[in-house]
Amino acid sequence: MINASDLVRDEVHELAPYNSGLTVREVNERYGPAKIAKLASNENPLGPSPDLDSITMADSDLLRLYPDPAGVELREAIAVALDVASTQIILGNGSEELISIICRAVLRPRDRVVTLYPSFPLHEDYAALMGASVERVNVKGNMSVDVDTFEKKIATPARMVIFSNPMNPVGSWLAPAELSRVIAAADKNTLIVVDEAYAEYAAGEDYVSAIDLLKGSRRPWVVLRTMSKAYGLAGLRIGYGVVADPEFRSLLDRVRTPFNVNAIAQVSAVKALADRQHLQRVVTLAASERQRVQAFLLANDWPVAASKGNFLFFDCAGNAADFAEGLLRYGVIVKPWKQAGYETFVRVSVGSPDENNQFMSAVLSLTSQDVSHSSAIADG
Prior knowledge:
Cofactor: pyridoxal 5'-phosphate
Organism: Phyllobacterium endophyticum
CATH topology of the largest domain: Aspartate Aminotransferase, domain 2
Family: Belongs to the class-II pyridoxal-phosphate-dependent aminotransferase family. Histidinol-phosphate aminotransferase subfamily.
Strand order of the largest sheet: 2-8-7-6-5-3-4
Number of domains: 2
Enzyme class: transferase
Structural class: alpha/beta
Number of helices: 15
EC number: 2.6.1.9
């Protein structure tokens, strides 16, 4: 008799498990620290807008009835915020689901997909799951995007090019002129998918959304956004995409499940979008704390990439998994990167001032222990 696992496609067997990071409960059970700073998943330390307090279980219809399958109110709110047509908006159970939907709708076995590297792993995983061939463009030694190589790679016809801007996990970004070059270089029949999960944190003169550059273009494109990061709704799992045209969006809609975004998530997202003051507080805090933590890392000789996200990517000069495990003893959760070639790198989220202080103190304590241990070995 055949084993059930033998029925699973080869592409699934070849996927590495997604590194979701440890939960607070897991760290408590393992080490029982007095205080935990969860800085592994780029969550928002200020949480969602206080306006969401009015959404309570008292409104039983939010639980009793199926949600609006089209998400009309939310799509209209997004359309107003971004100055696009609501018929261009597709909703997802997190932007991760939208990546899956796009790959399932568009990709075929042996299709060519180009991405930046190191990357958000699901950009590659969902493409590989469909049997596509993924080609990577590595960042340069200083962790900036290799725009010249990227242009050359995507000038050759590909089914899809998918990348984050700012990049996750690195934090590097394509400046307006660079992003324009990339879009112009891509073969006209290639689907461009830009993941802008951290766009709210990146806003400024040296950053532009791909929406602004692609709006009105006749070529195929999708720009992905999420409510998990700057809007503080990670637990509700809600993301959205802006799609080149309504016809393409309607076809992608056929691939998603009919009620993929729950009612509480839809109502919460509408309220969160409306509170621009809270969003500004979130972005301002992240920028100032990112600069402070980056200065600390550089002052202590930890190579760290320039970042436009609410996180930093640095080289711990050793096994990143061991380094992260050491920090757990001090109640600090970070994410050791596991993609090939970057096993010494750690991504740390920018948290609250107290959480960041806890991280910096833990790093100093951990590294002083390592120095003492190395000295003892040398003296012995």
